[in-house]
Amino acid sequence: MQKIEAVNDFVIKFANINGSGSASANELVARAILRMGVPVSPRNIFPSNIQGLPTWFEVRVTERGYLGRRGGVDMMVAMNPQTWDQDVREVETGGYLFYDNSRPLPRSRSRDDIHVIGMPLTELCNNAYSDPRQRQLFKNIIYVGALAHLLDIEASEIEKLFAQQFKGKEKLLDANVQALAVGREYAREHLKPIGLKVERRDKVGDHIFVDGNTAAALGCVYGGATVCAWYPITPSSSVAEAFIRFTQKLRVDPATGQQRCAVVQAEDELASIGMVVGASWNGARAFTATSGPGISLMSEFIGLAYFAEIPAVLINVQRGGPSTGMPTRTQQSDILACAYASHGDTRHVLLFPEDPYECFEMSAQALDLAERLQTPVFVMSDLDIGMNQRLCRPFAWDDSVEYDRGKVMTRDALDAGTDFGRYLDVDGDGIPYRTYPGTHPTRGGYFTRGTTKNAYAAYSEAGTDYVENMQRLLRKFETAKSLVPLPVLTAARHPARFAVIFYGSTSPSMHEALDALAEHGIYINALRIRAFPFQDEIVDFIAAHSKVFVFEQNLDGQLTTLLINEAGVRPASLVTVVHYDGTPITARFITREISDRVARLNVHSLKEDRVA
């Protein structure tokens, strides 16, 4: 029978039951391989309940450094009878199925083209432990020990992880090391070697291993945020939780010990964005973290911030929708909702990070942009980036950089007789000057309203005042094009007729797919969009190709709609390709879709040439 053989290049997937303690055990495998100098990319796919439902943990191992999902499974660790048939189907031909054979497996429940590895895990645990909870927890560690032997993972690296996890808890440390040894010894004595191996390398370099939510929180700290108002919602809650941890260390006055920031868990999402708007109006740098349903509830205050021109930063960790959708599944499903959030005519700045490094960078940048533009700014993360740990560049910060507070009218300028109109465009960029509360005892005050007004903030329902104000907001949005991050071009090695546009968490799988396509002689130019509004570079890129594939992780092709609406792109030049089952997009999906579509387009082009 065929046998998959690979060194430092495979996918292992764990099928468990939520609440069984398996996630931390499975993470040990990923972290131990990482400590051996081999890049890994783990993804925890879990249900939106406390315990009892199926959960999966997938680890991509490749010394080539690809961090997206590949597609397919080389080794399945099948610990959940509920999902057995589904899990068995996922294994590649010649792959490996590891399971608990304390109960015999009917031949009809397996496959003839895969290698089945049975180990009596339940029996081993029942013999070694009397406590039911210990039996479950140490069952996980025992199979980790067996996998360490089968895959040649250095057990010493796992033991070092135990030492860190159970520092000061020697009884737990000793018990886990013992369970690891039980699994390793059983595998050594009873299990045959397999073709998947890990060999020590030095391929990680100075990269760090962190999740996007933690990175975004740290970016807010370094970006100068002093107020966070939030309401818990999966998958964004850990942004605020991480911000709390960081500020307890980095936002404390060394002389007095007082906290130098405010973190408020509001009663709901509407209250949280209201607090952010109020704090920002008062001169603080403030943000909230939420997901799609939260954005829906925040819409009225977002509209107020847009029209009253008050800075606000919203970190949106997207999940599946509509309604409450799939709270623990990933999608890029809020692009249009955020671009046009609120009623009436609004356009909001969106930033699209691709990894934790850009979550850090763009969260800090968003605070600058919000104040510079006096408007809400959205950081469009998602569950795949936000909650999964990823290798990325080390965070960098220049301590000499000063925060961009935008156009703020000072007391001296007011004393000098400067004409102050809160919504007066004096520079032609659409951005007016603002004052902080208390700037001057008699001058520089204005009434902040969400209703229509003239350039001096006086109430007005005159159509000319409304039109002038809206045209100025459009000029400001045009100015934003020069301030937001530029797209990133990945040019093919040879001239290419076709191109691809993508954004956010699609990035790691896309780069692997582009390499795979090039190996088969299909050359594609690629552009990663990093922000909305769209710059001219994006329009020019589309115009330079006969067809551009737009890859999105939503049903509606929301970025495609935005490109047509806002960039004036011809719909016929774009080919939307969507992936929206709640799992992160895979390199194989992208490769297959582009290959098939390029083949069809080439055949169609050939027919047209013959007719001509």
UniProtKB/TrEMBL annotation:
The organism's place on the tree of life at top rank: Bacteria
Signal peptide stretch: none
Pfam families from the UniProt entry: POR, POR_N
Keyword line: Oxidoreductase
Gene3D superfamilies to which the protein is assigned, alphabetical: 3.40.50.920, 3.40.50.970, Pyruvate-ferredoxin oxidoreductase, PFOR, domain III
All residue ranges annotated as the Pyruvate/ketoisovalerate oxidoreductase catalytic domain in the record: 19-185
Domain Pyruvate flavodoxin/ferredoxin oxidoreductase pyrimidine binding: 220-384
PANTHER family tied to this protein: BLR6743 PROTEIN, PYRUVATE-FLAVODOXIN OXIDOREDUCTASE-RELATED
Name of the molecule in the record: 2-oxoacid:acceptor oxidoreductase subunit alpha
Taxonomic classification: Bacteria, Pseudomonadati, Pseudomonadota, Betaproteobacteria, Candidatus Accumulibacter
